[in-house]
Specification:
This protein has a domain at 5-97. The longest helix has 156 residues, at 97-252. The chain is 90% helix and 0% strand. With 271 residues, it is mainly alpha-helical. Helix 4 packs across helix 5 (258-270). 1% of the residues are buried.
């Protein structure tokens, strides 16, 4: 693989997870650069040998062969140009030694990262041991707390059972007292009911008596009303007769004003 200068300048390497270049890519690059160096060295050596050979042949044939000299001169110039080009490429390859130095620096950084990784692993192991120790202590505390909680639970259950029994006993006493009070109140209510029943009977008798008295009073009122009506009818008839007599007298009398006055006065008195 032959590299051009622009290709070498644009060449990049992929980085590992830890941040450095991948060693495989760098090794491939260095191997290719070394191969190119060997190729260029071999070409330069051959060109130099060819130049020496041509110079010798040119010296031999310089006197008699102008055309050959001209051709050899041209070949010499071409070879010189090629040599110059190869020297320039060689200089460029020498400039490419910098990635190798950078690779060595990265190698050192990689070793430092490995050391840091080992330190981190040791720290992680120590942290895991500490975490396991803390977990064991937490388990012990958990068991202790569970035991204490179980004891408190048993104590609270016993206290609650005692309170429940005491409450049931007090409730039974209160129920017994209430039962006695209810029996006494029921007895009093029965007595009061009998008393009320007696009063109701008395009221019924009184009502019957009042109804009889009302009927008697109603009969008396009817008789009185009938008597008053009869008296009123009789008085009307009397007044009618008096008015008739007065009218007759008025027709025969010369002073008709006085008798009507007397009749009206009598009517007012009757009313």
């Amino acid at each position: 693989m032959n590299f051009e200068a622009i290709e070498i300048r644009k060449l990049t390497f992929k980085k590992n997870v830890l941040g450095g270049f991948r060693q495989l890519d760098v090794n491939d690059f260095l191997r290719n650069v070394a191969d190119d160096y060997e190729t260029y060295d071999e070409r330069i050596r051959r060109l130099v040998e060819e130049k020496d050979r041509l110079d010798a042949e040119l010296a031999k044939h310089q006197s008699g062969q102008h055309t050959a000299v001209t051709r050899l001169e041209q070949e010499k110039n071409e070879l010189l140009k090629k040599i110059q080009q190869l020297e320039q490429e060689k200089k460029q390859l020498e400039l490419q030694k910098e990635p190798l130095e950078r690779f060595q620096e990265l190698q050192i950084e990689y070793e430092d990262l490995n050391k840091m990784k080992r330190i981190a692993q040791k720290t992680l192991q120590a942290a895991e041991k500490a975490a396991n120790r803390l977990l064991e202590e937490a388990e012990k505390k958990k068991a202790t707390l569970l035991s204490e909680a179980e004891q408190q639970k048993t104590s609270l259950l016993n206290a609650a059972e005692e309170e429940r029994l005491q409450y049931l006993f007090d409730a039974k006493l209160e129920i017994s007292s209430l039962q006695k009070e209810q029996d006494q109140q029921a007895h009093e209510l029965l007595a009061e009911k009998a008393n009320l029943e007696q009063k109701r009977q008395e009221l019924l008798q009184l009502r019957t008596q009042i109804c009889e008295e009302v009927q008697t009073f109603a009969g008396m009122m009817a008789a009185t009303r009938q008597e008053i009506s009869q008296e009123y009818v009789n008085s009307i008839e009397t007044l009618t007769k008096q008015n008739e007599a007065v009218r007759q007298k008025t027709q025969t009398s010369s002073t008709p004003q006085e008798p009507p006055t007397l009749v009206l006065t009598q009517e007012k008195e009757v009313m």
